[in-house]
Amino acid sequence: MFEAQGLMVFYENMLALNNVSLSCGEGQIIGVFGANSAGKSTLMYTLSGIMLDIARKEEMAGGERITIRGSIRYQGREIMEHKPAQRARAGIILCPERRRIFPESSVLENLKIGAYLASRQQARETLEYVFRIFPPLARIKNRLGGFLSGGEQQMLAIGRALMAQPRLLLLDEPLLGLSPAIQYWLAKAIREIRDQRGTSIIVAEQYARPIMPIIDYGYILENGSAVVEGTREELMDNPDVRAAYFGT
Ligand code: ATP
Fold first, then answer.
1. Domain boundaries, the chain
2. Best substitution site from 42, 173, 175 to test ligand 1's pocket, by max atoms within 8 Å of Cβ?
3. β-sheet bridge partners, residue 66
4. Ligand 1 pocket check: which of 32, 36, 37, 97 to mutate, most ligand atoms within 8 Å of Cβ?
5. Which ligand 1 atom is nearest residue 173's CA?
6. pTM value?
7. pLDDT at res. 248
8. DSSP characters for the chain?
């Protein structure tokens, strides 16, 4: 349902994505693993279209020249030139790195803001679902976003993305800065979202260990290139991947 081919992103003359191709079938969970600066956020911005906005803003401000190339097909259409809002309306929703929730709005308000693409009926149903899958949020629904723990903020960020009715959910480093126990709990919740709602998910992460068990297929990103790809089993059996991501 989603297929990116030959993605290239240059920041001025620095190559941040080098000929990256990846695909995500209906209801699949795809992992993209890479160290700091491997290009994960650049990839997620390119898939969601936000890279187009970043490039345009830089150009208007007379800043660096950002060049984006490649093809993205989604539900049979080429969407590379589609703006992020248009992609969001089609169901491609990014949950960005570092949560980006509104600290001065309550949990409930943050979730309602996410429902801008939903009908009232969908918003009501999804709100109930978010509280079911993330029970801690239901208990603190009137608390301000800025007063949440890291794990609660991440639940809220994913919950808000769900409110926008994603068909393809892009999660950029959802586990960053969280304790191992919460990382495993969240990974399980991500799989439940796919199982229960049929949402296709692409998750970019540094920490392969908690995410690897939930993916159908994955890519290893190094210096902007997808150097290894394979099913969960193939990646787990690959000695280079094991050494780099599992320390074994
Ligand atoms: P992190 O885990 O640190 O978020 P990442 O894998 O998401 O890393 P990116 O943020 O995509 O990596 O960055 C990829 C490369 O592009 C890095 O070398 C980064 O320094 C560089 N980069 C990112 N944004 C810009 C920019 N606006 N201008 C120039 N270089 C950039």
1. 99-164
2. 42
3. 11
4. 37
5. 2
6. 0.95
7. 59
8. -EEEEEEEEEETTEEEEEEEEEEE-TT-EEEEE--TTSSHHHHHHHHHTHHHHHHHHHHHTT---EEEEEEEEETTEE-TT--HHHHHHTTEEEE-TT----TTSBHHHHHHHHGGGS-HHHHHHHHHHHHHHSHHHHHTTTSBGGGS-HHHHHHHHHHHHHHT--SEEEEESTTTT--HHHHHHHHHHHHHHHHHH--EEEEEES-HHHHGGG-SEEEEEETTEEEEEEEHHHHHH-HHHHHHHH--
Residue nearest to atom 20 of ligand 1 (CA): 37
- What integer pLDDT is reported at residue 215 of this predicted model? 97
Residues of the chain with pLDDT under 70: 247-248
pLDDT value of residue 105: 96
Given a contact cutoff of 8 angstroms between Cβ atoms, the answer to whether 27 and 197 are in contact is no
Q: Which residues line ligand 1 (CB under 6 A)?
A: 11, 14, 16, 34, 36-42, 64, 97
Atom of ligand 1 nearest to the CA of 58: 27
| Ligand 1 atom at minimal distance to the Cα of residue 206 | 2
